[in-house]
Amino acid sequence: MNRLCSIASLAALALAAPLSAQEADKPEYPSPGEIVKQATPEEWLAIAPSDLLVMDLAPDAAGEARRVIIQLMPEPFSQGWIRNIRKLAAAHWWDGTSINRVQDNYVVQWGDASEKKALPEGLETVPESEYVTPIADDMVINGMATHIISQASNDKYFPSNGKDPYTNETSFMTGWPFGFADNGVSPVHCYAAVGVGRNLSPDTGSGAELYTVIGHAPRHLDRNIAVVGRVIEGIEHLSSLPRGKGDLGFYEDEGKRVPISSIRLASALPTADQPRFEYLNTDGDTFAKYADARANRRDPFFNLPAGGADICNIPVPVRRVKAE
Amino acid sequence: MNRLCSIASLAALALAAPLSAQEADKPEYPSPGEIVKQATPEEWLAIAPSDLLVMDLAPDAAGEARRVIIQLMPEPFSQGWIRNIRKLAAAHWWDGTSINRVQDNYVVQWGDASEKKALPEGLETVPESEYVTPIADDMVINGMATHIISQASNDKYFPSNGKDPYTNETSFMTGWPFGFADNGVSPVHCYAAVGVGRNLSPDTGSGAELYTVIGHAPRHLDRNIAVVGRVIEGIEHLSSLPRGKGDLGFYEDEGKRVPISSIRLASALPTADQPRFEYLNTDGDTFAKYADARANRRDPFFNLPAGGADICNIPVPVRRVKAE
């Protein structure tokens, strides 16, 4: 690259060389994004529409639609809360509720601010024990044996090399980040994770009050609160909202609340309207190369590979695809 | 707490019990915020106005003022770039420039989008070696000996207990988070860190193009790009901006750029207008208790202390104080 290039080019290159420049240079080491583009079609796995929540907010001030899409966690994790969430969506319970809290570098939270909306009948009271899923030798999750968690010497699955301050180790299974502790496996509060607001213990929340992470991963919440999914599209409609000025980022001014028009399972929408997404198989070769490249940046912008990464700095690639 | 409390109370309690409830319960373990409130006046150390950058953006759509305050790093870190930044501020160089890039879960970046603004004379070309500061046995930083970095068994300074994936260890000195590698000490890219945009190596950036972190800590940038400071007030004016729709989050529509009215050192403002801030001494007993509480949440909301924390999950407390 020419150091005399314009300031605009400097700006564009400031934190990462744009693809055009990288391709021109034909670097020996492709960027993480370039690696993902090289994945085979078979490495992209479909997300079932029944595992997607579609949240439509009221249009923004310019009249633009705001849609947020959440992927729910696969079995066997957090399923009690997720059953409740499916019931709440089926009952159209969130329609007319609102986003009530936006706390900088922490969370955006939504639910019923009126205090008066009755919950649907039949919601489960989920025990705290469900925050952690015991590890069994023969445990199979979505077709993948958890024996991988014993392969601690394999960088492919353990990019932090045992250096996670919160758990014994972190790794990926079935497209999701997890922490592994002595007593079991737990989902991790990375950026965009969706969790279940709750009262003090032993309450674990119903799932009616949800939040998503919009800042540095609040990993101290892991194993203390249920993670039920993650935002896979449209998080900018939440993360760029004005911060609330009340305690914990709640909007003091009710007029600041953002109305929720509806929340539905994608599978409840007409087939033609169902959004389709795929995630990169976290057990595949491409994900291994991608995770390694995230942990050891060698593409042209970088001088020094870090030698590791924390699990939340390796977001699982998800892409939107055309309807079938 | 009464589990039958209203939904609104549930919302307020959803992620952390409010102080009023905690005080009523007189918990054995105060929250990190409560610990900080117990610090003695002597533990709060003044930040010199000459180490503060005051950035005024154009008022928002509602006519509200938007001021962002950045604390510059202390000696001996990143001082070449910081000398340039002082010259740029003195020359009023940023006045009339703009915020040009907002990339979700990454950075907000500002500088001259016109490509035509000449830089002041006399800016330094800082070598890449300045990304890392060698550790000397007798090294003293702002009056604090760095012998503390050899106290690896001391939780007070090493909350991650050696489990940082990016460096040998992380710790705090003079109110800032650092990573310690074999070849020296480097500032860390935590949320709100301010860094210097640059071109490909060997360019290191002048300091005219700056960014701040608005997402999960991009620690892979550590030792690859200069950290020169951190936003200590008003980051919501940056983190809540609409995300850019161009590559890397640049605004494709020039009309979305946010004009910068001025950037000044606080010491260049009239004395009565100079904002005053203090940070909690990271070598004091209160900070040690605070860091321990962040790493081992035992306040009423939490069931399970994590047993550790990553350095960016322990933000150094900073507070605004009245002018003298």
SSE blueprint and pairings:
The structure is a homodimer of 324-residue chains.
Chain A: H1 7-13, H2 19-25, H3 32-37, E1 44-47, E2 52-57, E3 66-72, H4 79-90, E4 98-102, E5 107-111, E6 140-141, E7 144-145, E8 169-173, E9 176-181, E10 184-187, E11 193-196, E12 210-213, E13 227-233, H5 236-239, E14 258-265, E15 276-280, H6 285-295, E16 318-321
Antiparallel strand pairs in A: 1-15, 2-3, 2-14, 3-13, 4-5, 4-14, 5-12, 6-7, 8-9, 9-10, 11-12, 11-13, 15-16
Gist of the model:
Two copies of one chain form a homodimer. By secondary structure, chain A is of the alpha+beta class.
- Oligomer kind: homodimer
* Strand line-up in the sheet with most strands of chain A: 2-3-13-11-12-5-4-14
Radius of gyration of chain A: 21 Å
Number of helices of chain A: 6
Structural class of chain A: alpha+beta
Order of helices and strands of chain A: HHHEEEHEEEEEEEEEEHEEHE
Shape call of chain A: globular
Largest sheet of chain A: 8 strands, antiparallel, barrel
Proportion in β-strands of chain A? 15-25%
Q: Mean pLDDT of chain A, rounded to whole units?
A: 86
How much helix, percentage-wise, in residues of chain A?
10-25%
Number of strands of chain A: 16
Q: Give the chain pair forming the largest contact, with residue counts.
A: A-B, 91 and 91 residues
Stretches of chain A where pLDDT is under 50 for at least 5 consecutive residues are 1-24, 141-156
Gap from first CA to last CA of chain A = 43 Å
Fill in the keyword field for this structure.
homodimer; 324 residues; alpha+beta; 16 strands; 24% strand
Question: What does this molecule look like?
Answer:
The structure is a homodimer of 324-residue chains. With 324 residues, chain A is α+β, with helices and mostly antiparallel strands. Chain A has six helices and 16 strands. In chain A, the strands form four sheets. An eight-stranded antiparallel beta barrel of chain A has the order 2-3-13-11-12-5-4-14. Chain A is globular, with a radius of gyration of 21 Å. The model of chain A is unreliable at 1-24 and 141-156 (pLDDT under 50). At the A-B interface, helix 1, strand 4 and strand 5 of A face helix 1, strand 4 and strand 5 of B.
